[in-house]
Structures are given as C-alpha cells and as structure tokens.
Amino acid sequence: MRWKGAEYAIAALARLRHEPAPVLVLAGDGPYRAALARLAAEQGVADRVHFLGEWPHAAMPDLFAAADVVLGASFVNETFGISLCEALATERLVIAADFGGFREVVRDGETGLLVPPQDPAALAAAIADLLADPARRRAYGAAGRRDVAARFSWDAVVARVLAAYDEALR
Question: Per the confidence metrics, is the pTM higher than 0.85?
Fold first, then answer.
C-alpha cells in the first residue's frame, strides 16, 4: 500500500553510507511492489531491498528479531501502530513517522525515534545514528519491551477501556 511509505524507506536507504551496507526488508505484497522495485533500481539499491511478499503474521516475531531497526514510514491511515507494538515487544527499537497513532506507540528518544513523515533525509539520519550505536539500540529495545508490556498488554488495555466506559456512564 502506497501510504505505508516504503518509497521513503527506499530513498533513505540510498542515502546511507554505513558499513556494512544496510538492507531493507519489506514484508507484504500488493500492486505497488513493481513501482517500489523500479524505485530501488533507480536509487541504486535494488540489491539491498528484499521483497518477502506475503508473510504470515505468526512469523513476524522472527522477522522483527532479525532486524536491527524496524521502520514505520506510513504517512496516512495509521490510527495506532500494532506492528510497531509487536516490534517493540521483541525488543527492537522503532523509527517511525511522527504521525497519527505512531506518536502513541513510540516514545521519542526512549523506545525509538520519531521523524517527520515523508522525509527520507531525516529517516536516513535517524537510521545512521542508531546503526552506529548498538548500545543505544539495545537500550531503546529493552525500554520498548517494558513500555509495551506496561501500556499495551491486554490487562492494561482492558483497564483503560473499562475506565473510559465508567467515565462515560457518570
């Protein structure tokens, strides 16, 4: 889906000069894939963009665990960010667009970073900073796991929903 912002992730990848060269892995499929493959070729990073196609949800924890950084580059339609919660739960830090529900999930400078939406330069800078600092990635990942467990476990969510109903009924 175009609104997921994969084109900005590809453009950011093309700006990165980190060694070893980072790789972008995209899970999912759709009609926009061919355009993304062309963009990767135009940007000179086709060999570093891997399209997994359809990926089973049950296998996402394994995919997150293999990543150094998880990106949330959407720029419309994100009312929450469940995939970001899932990534944080696997102790992976997240770099996400400072947009919509992503702001609720990612605590900027604590569990990950928020960058301006549709800004490949800012996204690349955030990725480069974190690739250069494994200790910071681990700290953000650990903080993310704790934060997701505290704020988004089923017990925590149910308590908030019941409190909202209680308030509405008063």
Answer: yes
Cα-based distances in Å from 86 to 4, 89, 125: 17, 5, 24
Q: Do 138 and 88 contact (CB within 8 A), yes or no?
A: no
How many structural domains is the chain composed of? Answer: 1
Q: What CATH number did the domain enclosing 138 receive?
A: 3.40.50.2000
- Spell out the per-residue pLDDT of the chain, length 170, in tens: 677 899 999 999 999 988 889 999 999 988 999 999 999 999 999 999 999 999 999 999 999 999 999 999 999 877 888 999 999 999 999 999 999 899 999 999 999 999 999 999 999 999 999 999 999 999 999 999 999 999 999 999 999 999 999 999 98
Burial of 32 (0-12, 13-18, 19+ CB in 10 A): middle
**What is the span of the domain harbouring residue 100?**
2-169
Identity at 34, one-letter amino acid code? A
